[in-house]
Amino acid sequence: MLTAQRRAMISARLARHGQIVAKALADELGLSEDTIRRDLREMAAEGLLRRVHGGALPLTPPLPDFAARQAIASDVKRMLGRRAAGLVQSGQTIFLDGGTTNAEIARALPRDLRATVVTHSPTIAAEFELHEAEVILIGGRLYKHSMVAVGAAAVAAIEQIRVDLFFLGVTAVHPAHGLSTGDYEEATIKRAIARQSAETYVLATPEKFGAASPHRIMRVHDLAGLIVPADMETELLSPCRDATALILA
């Protein structure tokens, strides 16, 4: 098999299955494992995939900074935010993760809603200046890329709170590799919040599907639901249908 043919097969399989195990692929093709590993190294160097121990995962493009992300898919984010806000009931305690999509939830919530909003994002907290909702702001070391508090102090505070709904922000959604993000400490905080929450939801724009970021948060199966655009391609959503509820916005 020619190198170009192998690389085309690797790309197709990565898109379909979300991972490549070098030994298994080598055995299947009757090639040496070194040959497959060399292909993976070269493809990783060209930015076509992400090498991991024993194989490869899909490549997740680096996110732009917080200010730049505010302008990305803003109409879709507003639509998702309105749909998520409709899940919140009076008297509930909710946790809003950081991120530009979750900021749209805050903007969509009625100003007279009597609820408690917990967040570790100062930018999210500021959205509630004119709302009647009580706001609890979790402190810690500020991770500026996402404008959220991280670290031991944040985890300790989160462990003292129980919430009804957690709106989790992620950078990637994959049926096999779960929900993930690009920073180790931020992933730790997100897992801590999910443990304290009765239900966890993710608002996901199409580009996040089928990708995997370096740091896993939780399984898609553990979500109460994925909130997605109603016009998303069926092919992107199909792998997640058996894992959790799909809520169309």
UniProtKB/TrEMBL annotation:
InterPro entries associated with the record: Carb_Metab_HTH_regulators (IPR050313), DeoR-like_C (IPR014036), DeoR_HTH (IPR001034), NagB/RpiA_transferase-like (IPR037171), Tscrpt_reg_HTH_DeoR_CS (IPR018356), WH-like_DNA-bd_sf (IPR036388), WH_DNA-bd_sf (IPR036390)
Pfam families in UniProt: DeoRC (PF00455), HTH_DeoR (PF08220)
Entry annotated with the keyword Nuclease: no
Domain HTH deoR-type as annotated: residue spans: 3-58
Keywords for the protein's UniProt record, in alphabetical order: DNA-binding, Repressor, Transcription, Transcription regulation
Protein name as catalogued: DeoR/GlpR family transcriptional regulator of sugar metabolism
Native source species: Sinorhizobium kostiense
Organismal lineage: Bacteria, Pseudomonadati, Pseudomonadota, Alphaproteobacteria, Hyphomicrobiales
